[in-house]
Amino acid sequence: MNVQIEPSWKEYLQGEFEKPYFQQLTESVRREYSAGACYPPGKLIFNAFNLCPFNEVKVVIIGQDPYHEPGQAHGLSFSVQEGVQFPPSLQNIFKEINNDLGTPIPENGDLSRWAQQGVLLLNATLTVRAHQANSHSALGWQKFTDAAIQALAANREHLVYMLWGGYARSKAYMIDKNRNLVLESVHPSPLSANRGGWFDQHQFSRANNYLIEQGLTPIEW
User: Fold this and answer.
1) Is 65 an annotated catalytic residue?
2) How far apart are CA 192 and CA 197, in angstroms?
3) Pair 126, 111: CB distance under 8 Å
4) Rounded distance, CA 2 to CA 214, Å?
5) What is 101-148 written as a DSSP string?
6) Which among 214, 60, 74 is positioned nearest to 152, based on CA atoms?
7) Please, which residues have CB within 8 angstroms of residue 112's CB and are 6 or more apart in sequence?
8) Mind listing the pLDDT tens digit of every residue in the chain (221 residues)?
9) Phi and psi (nearest 5°) for 179?
10) Which one, of 11, 19, 2, 53, lies nearest residue 144 by Cα?
């Protein structure tokens, strides 16, 4: 299949595109988008990959599925399009960055600026039906995104993996903790974060310190 995705990712994931599950997934996604509103816009489904080439990845942040209300999702986990009100999880992310690094809370929640610095903002499921969280979780996306994580785990090292919440932490088995930094915590959503284990973890400074130790440029969070 001729999937429109950034060339370096295409090289590592080409085998997935030829598998029966991916062809079924593609057909299911096309049906869903034809039947009613789905997010993100079709051209942005692979935005996380397109903004962050395989060999430029420094940090991996795993989300579950896209925001499901109009104008929010644009293919990057936890990110919203410019001008959209910050969802609660993103508010808590920015609060923790401010607490950790003193970085001012930004005016917009578009995290493309992170992706362009090497932060792979990967949702496990890349599409969603409008107003219905996790509505595409059974379509087969997770086989594909797991393959992306496994490709990084097999071919790259000295990456920072930020695993927030039980779902993201369930991916830890794929990652060699001796060759990478794995930071695990509760999810930044208020339901979890306000009970403790999100704030004051200093994940963003720890990530940057690790990158510096590897001779890499830290992220401007």
Assistant:
1) yes
2) 8
3) no
4) 36
5) H-PPPPS---THHHHTTTEEEEESS--EETTBTTTTTTSSHHHHHHHH
6) 60
7) 51, 76, 79
8) 678 999 999 999 999 999 999 999 999 999 999 999 999 999 999 999 999 999 999 999 999 999 999 999 999 999 999 999 999 999 999 999 999 999 999 999 999 999 999 999 999 999 999 999 999 999 999 999 999 999 999 999 999 999 999 999 999 999 999 999 999 999 999 989 988 899 999 999 999 999 999 999 999 99
9) -110, -5
10) 19
Residue written as tokens 């208020």? 190
Residue 149's contacts (CB-CB under 8 Å, 6 or more residues apart) are: 60, 62, 122, 171, 174, 175
Structure tokens at 118: 């090497």
What is d(CA 5, CA 28) in angstroms, rounded to the nearest whole number?
Answer: 19
Tell me, rounded to whole angstroms, the distance of Cα 21 from its chain centroid: 22
Q: Pick the catalytic residue: 65, 110, 146, 176?
A: 65
Q: How long a stretch of residues is the chain? A: 221
Helix axes 141-155, 20-35, angle to 10 degrees: 130
> SS3 letters for 1-19?
CCCCCCHHHHHHHHHHHCC
The pTM of the full predicted model, rounded to 2 decimals, is 0.96
Phi and psi (nearest 5°) for 113? -65, -30
Cis amide bond preceding 40, omega within 30? yes
For residue 215, is it left (φ>0), alpha (ψ between -120 and 50) or beta? left
Structure tokens at 161: 């993996």
Dist CA 185 CA 92 (whole Å): 13
